[in-house]
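Task 17 of the worksheet. Students: predict the tertiary structure of the chain below and write it out as structure tokens. Keep your answer in the requested format; marks are given for formatting as well as content.
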Amino acid sequence: MTRDRKYYSKEFKLKAIELSYARESVKQVAEELGIRPTLLYKWRSNLLTVKRCILLKECPEF
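Model answer:
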């Protein structure tokens, strides 16, 4: 049995990240949005990587 993959818009991801920093519990935000906490942590990490790349011009090889 295969599961359908869910895709989230940039706007949804950015709002989720914003909420996760505004509140104390990433788990609670993830539950409210219906996503896994690990996914939210991954989005946060990816955003930090992109910001670092832009600011420091140290982009990892993808």
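Marker's comment: Residues 10-56 form one domain. The CA atoms of residues 17 and 47 lie 9 Å apart.
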